[in-house]
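Researcher: I'm preparing a figure for a lab meeting and need a structural model of a single chain. I don't have an experimental structure, so a prediction will have to do for now. The sequence is pasted below. Please return the structure as C-alpha cells so I can convert it later.
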Amino acid sequence: MKSSDIILVTGARGLVGSAVVEHLKHSGHLVAAVDHLDCELQDLQATLGLFKRVRPDHVFHAAARVFGIMGNMQNQGRTYLENTLINTHVIEAARLSGAKKITVMGTNAVYPYPPHLPFNERDIFYGRPHASESGYAHAKRGMLAMLEAYGESYGLEWAYVVSCNLYGPRDNFNIETGHVIPSLIRKFHVALMTDTPVTIWGDGSAMRNFMFVKDLARAVHSIMEHEIDAINIGDGGVWSIRQIVDKLCAITGVNRVEWDATKPNGQQHREANLKRLNALGFKPMYSIDEGLRATWDWYCGHQHDLLHR
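Model: Understood. Here is the structure written out cell by cell.
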C-alpha cells in the first residue's frame, strides 16, 4: 500500500477497528475511520454515499453485529440478517467505488462442527458450523462466498481474516454480550469491588486461540499488503478457559471462583492452522499474560467512561 492511498476502516470505534486505525495512522497511512454514528451500513444508499465521498483505495471492514455466546443463541435471525446486510453493502460499495482491495474480518465460527483440527482455511465450507453461533457463522460464510464471487466476476482483490478470540482495550465488556475474556474481566472487576465470588459459565475445559488486539492490528496490516484469500490468525497458543481464569486470579487478586456447569461451554475446542500467517513472517509481540494484564489495566483505568456510555 502507498502512503498516499486512502484506507477506509469500518467499525472504527470497536475493538478491532480502533486498533487497526491506530496502527495504520502510526504507520503513516491516510485513514478514513467510520462507525455506525457516521454511517448506518445496513442502509445500502447510505453506504454507497459514504464510499462515493471517501473514494477509498483500500477497505478494512471490521463492522459487525456481535452478541457473544448466549446472545448469539438468543438472536440467531437478527444476527444473520444484520451482519448479512452490513457485509453485502460494504462489499458492493467497495466494488462500485473502485477500491483496489478489501480486507474483511471473519471468524473461526465459520468452521464446520465437529471440527477437523487444527482449522484449515480450505475446510470452511465442508460442513455446518456449531449450532450456538449458526446465524453469525453463516452470515460470515456468506461474506466469504460473496468475495469469492466478486473476485471471479469483477476482479475485486480481497483477503478474509479468519479471526480467533480477540481481546484488548475498547472491547465489549458486557457480561451478557461480550466475548469470553472481556466478560471475565468485567466479572472479576465486579467481584473485586463487591468482595463476592466470580461465577463463570461452563466447566472451564473449552480450548481457544486468543490474540491481543495490538498484535491483530499488525497482522491485519501485513495481510492487507501481501495476502489474498482466507487466512487464519492467532498468537500460536491454545488455552483452556480455566487457564485464563487462573491467570486473571493472579492478576486481580480475586480467588473465589464458582463454575456453573449448567451454562454452555460453546464449541469445546478451537485451534487454527497458522502456516499462512507464519509464512508472512508474523510473530506476536504480546504473551497471553502481557495481553491480559494490559487489558485489565485499561479496563480499570476507564471505568468512568465505560459506566457513562
